[in-house]
Specification:
Helix content: 25-40%
Structural class: alpha+beta
Distance between the termini: 66 Å
Number of strands: 4
Number of helices: 5
Strand content: 5-15%
Order of helices and strands: HEEHEHEHH
Shape: elongated
Oligomer: single chain
């Protein structure tokens, strides 16, 4: 009997904590553009400036980090080529490595994710 009463009280407590948000309430998005899509159907659930062309910014660095983690060892050595160092867009984030400088994959990943080093992503 005690377990049934306790279960009932827990169920009531969980129901009491639910917050109902109206479906029509649009989220407050600070970014210039956003898209929320249902993965199964491809239906756009929410969009803000969805047709505006924008650079992917740090998403590419996150993907680079994921691919690096899947395909390299942390102690592998990266030697920076001229192109890796000098094809970074002027004014973008960089770690300012030199041509032929050598860093481990681990060091590159830290710089990639902490200082957003585009040159490290190139390497």
């Amino acid at each position: 009997m005690f377990k049934k009463v306790l279960s009932f009280m827990l169920a009531l407590a969980m129901l009491a904590t639910l917050v109902v948000v109206p479906v029509s309430a649009a989220p407050e998005i600070e970014s210039r553009a956003a898209v929320l899509m249902d993965e199964q159907t491809g239906q756009i659930l929410y969009s803000k400036n969805q047709d505006e062309v924008l650079y992917p910014a740090s998403i590419t660095k996150i993907m680079t980090a994921i691919l690096t983690l899947e395909n390299a060892q942390m102690d592998d050595v990266v030697t920076f080529s001229y192109d890796a160092v000098f094809t970074v867009e002027a004014g973008s984030s960089a770690a300012y490595v030199d041509v032929d400088e050598q860093l481990t994959v681990e060091q590159c990943l830290y710089g990639l994710m902490l200082i957003s080093g585009n040159d490290l992503a190139n390497g």
